[in-house]
Amino acid sequence: MTDKPKKLVEASLFLSQNPISAKSLAQIAGVGEKEVEKLVGELRTEYADRGIEIVQTPSGWQIHVKTELIGKVSHLSPYSDLSEGVLKTLALIVYKHPATQSYLVKMQGNKVYNYIKKLEGRGMIKTQKKGRTKEISVTQEFENYFGTTLDNIKKKVEEQITEIKEKQAKAKKVDPNAK
Predict the structure, then answer these.
(1) pLDDT grade for 1, boundaries at 50, 70 and 90
(2) pTM here?
(3) 4-65, what's its fold?
(4) Domain 84-174 class in CATH
(5) Cα separation values, 145 from 23, 124, 130, Å
(6) How far is 115 from 94, CA to CA, in rounded Å?
(7) Where exactly are the structural domains of the chain?
(8) CA end-to-end span of the chain, whole Å?
(9) Could you tell me which residues come within 8 angstroms of residue 121 by beta carbon, excluding any fewer than 6 positions away?
């Protein structure tokens, strides 16, 4: 067997913004899922001394920057693989942490169900049944992705909210009819 399947697996992981299942990688590389697992294992070993790594998420395999380096390079990425709606959902989850699904639906509407599914598939959040709704909290993968702790991110979100409220208060003083 040539290195072609391994190269296809590596190229697929490199190009994809989302995790890829072993089944999908097997189809792309033209090999079985067990062979994909072996190839991913080889790639993980090869990446051991590099700045990136292959990690397994609930929805598949993904390449990302190693946790110990992300803080130094995260400013280079605009997080373009997450839509504005998904980022807003994450901000609400961080602000309320843990947030309830019913709160998120109230704030963003029914589209939040898809955002939650995407975030859960990426391993960035976890959900737990709580009465008639779900309680949503962030995971270690969330902190790895953003290269900092939940507490630091929450602090930044709260600072932004305070800044927005101050601007709104100033606008009301200037124009008493402003909302």
Answers:
(1) very low
(2) 0.54
(3) Arc Repressor Mutant, subunit A (1.10.10)
(4) mainly alpha
(5) 24, 8, 27
(6) 14
(7) 4-65, 84-174
(8) 68
(9) 18, 19, 57, 58, 59
